[in-house]
């Protein structure tokens, strides 16, 4: 575009000949746009996730289990360890899922067992994601010997098979209860997320706004957590749901193997006691089916929510986007 020579020198950030004029010929100054508020960002993200049909199903299923865990004493007709009933009873009006070999109500145990799985999943998922974020972003930004040390540690954790490592660690930390399970799951579950975040950090590190921040004198910590981190929100959210899913399955697997406190009522411990009492041979198939189905549904709900989270970072994956 050719600019006439007799136009006045611009005094603001926007030249007047590039600013649209109002109806009376006056100059219209566009409103300044500040950064979006965190509440608005969260609202947009939730709307994007809810627009995905699979994610909606996942949210509903997850909400059911969360409510079940929170209001377990109100939902369950009996206590989780109340054993004053007949042994190995078939499903009936008094005991919807029957009773165990110890005379405990199976439905009540399923309801109370949701507490352990939901709590372990969210706590272990959060801690694993937190470690992955700190390690992954630092690893992707820094250079030199420290980056090599982090690379060695992460690769070492990734190379060792997860389940055998969890079994070995749990064997030395017996009687630790739920805390031990969370510790073992977090210790073995952060490395993959750290590697994914490191790759994305390296990609963002070379962009112009990072170079501008470096020239302006910002420190490494500020650049990593104020400039790079906000651009990885969807990836971190997806990592959390993935870590929570792995934590739920790991807790169930360890409890099923009898590692940890088997007296605590959880879906994994229910499978452990059902296997020890030969539930299938005695016709008590509900003892295995009910907790197994709950584990599968809870893990699937988190996976379905991840489909909606993917739409935050990749608009092509959003439903109704005109693909």
How would you describe the overall organization of this protein?
The protein has 323 residues and is an all-alpha fold. It is built from 13 helices and no strands. It has helices at residues 38-50, 53-70, 72-75, 106-141, 145-159, 162-172, 177-189, 191-205, 208-215, 220-228, 233-256, 267-276, 286-313. 34% of the residues are buried. Residues 1-5, 7-19 and 28-36 have low confidence and may be disordered.
Structural descriptors:
single chain; 323 residues; mainly alpha; MetI-like fold; 13 helices; elongated; disordered N terminus
Walk me through the topology.
Elements: H1 38-50, H2 53-70, H3 72-75, H4 106-141, H5 145-159, H6 162-172, H7 177-189, H8 191-205, H9 208-215, H10 220-228, H11 233-256, H12 267-276, H13 286-313
Helices, by number, come to: 13
> What is the overall shape?
elongated
Tell me the distance between the termini: 36 Å
Order of helices and strands: HHHHHHHHHHHHH
Uncertain ranges: 1-5, 7-19, 28-36
Helix and strand composition category: mainly alpha
CATH topology, by name, is: MetI-like fold
Specify the CATH class. Mainly Alpha
As a percent range, the share of strand residues is under 5%
Q: Which architecture would the CATH scheme give at its second level?
A: Orthogonal Bundle
Quantity of strands, as a count: 0
- On the 0 to 100 scale, the average pLDDT is 79
Radius of gyration: 27 Å
* Assigned CATH superfamily: MetI-like
Largest sheet: none
Instruction: Give the total of domains.
Output: 1
Membrane topology: Multi-pass membrane protein
Transmembrane segments: 57-76, 116-142, 149-172, 178-197, 232-250, 286-309
Keywords: Cell membrane, Membrane, Transmembrane, Transmembrane helix, Transport
Pfam families: BPD_transp_1 (PF00528), OppC_N (PF12911)
């Amino acid at each position: 575009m050719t600019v006439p020579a007799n136009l006045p020198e611009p005094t603001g950030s926007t030249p007047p000949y590039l600013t649209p004029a109002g109806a009376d010929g006056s100059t219209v100054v566009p409103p300044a746009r500040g950064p979006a508020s965190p509440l608005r960002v969260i609202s947009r993200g939730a709307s994007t996730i809810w627009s995905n049909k699979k994610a909606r199903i996942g949210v509903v299923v997850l909400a059911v289990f969360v409510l079940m865990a929170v209001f377990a004493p109100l939902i369950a007709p009996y206590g989780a360890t109340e054993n004053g009933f007949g042994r190995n009873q078939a499903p009936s009006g008094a005991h919807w899922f029957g009773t165990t070999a110890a005379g405990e109500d199976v439905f009540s145990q399923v309801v109370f067992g949701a507490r352990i799985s939901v709590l372990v999943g969210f706590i272990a998922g959060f801690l694993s994601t937190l470690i992955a974020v700190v390690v992954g972003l630092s690893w992707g930004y820094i250079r030199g010997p420290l980056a090599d040390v982090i690379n060695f540690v992460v690769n070492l954790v990734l190379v060792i098979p997860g389940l055998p490592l969890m079994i070995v660690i749990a064997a030395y930390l017996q009687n630790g209860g739920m805390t031990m399970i969370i510790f073992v799951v977090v210790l073995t579950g952060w490395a993959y997320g750290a590697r994914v975040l490191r790759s994305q950090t390296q990609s963002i590190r070379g962009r112009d706004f990072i170079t501008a921040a470096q020239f302006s004198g910002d420190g490494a910590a500020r650049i990593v957590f104020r400039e790079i981190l906000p651009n990885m929100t969807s990836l971190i959210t997806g990592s959390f749901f993935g870590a929570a899913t792995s934590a739920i399955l790991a807790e169930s697997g360890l409890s099923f193997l009898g590692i940890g406190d088997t007296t605590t009522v959880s879906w994994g411990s229910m499978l452990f006691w059902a296997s020890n009492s030969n539930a299938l041979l005695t016709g008590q198939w509900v003892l295995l089916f009910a907790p197994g189905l709950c584990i599968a549904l809870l893990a699937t709900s988190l996976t379905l929510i991840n489909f909606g989270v993917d739409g935050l970072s990749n608009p092509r994956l959003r439903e109704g986007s005109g693909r």
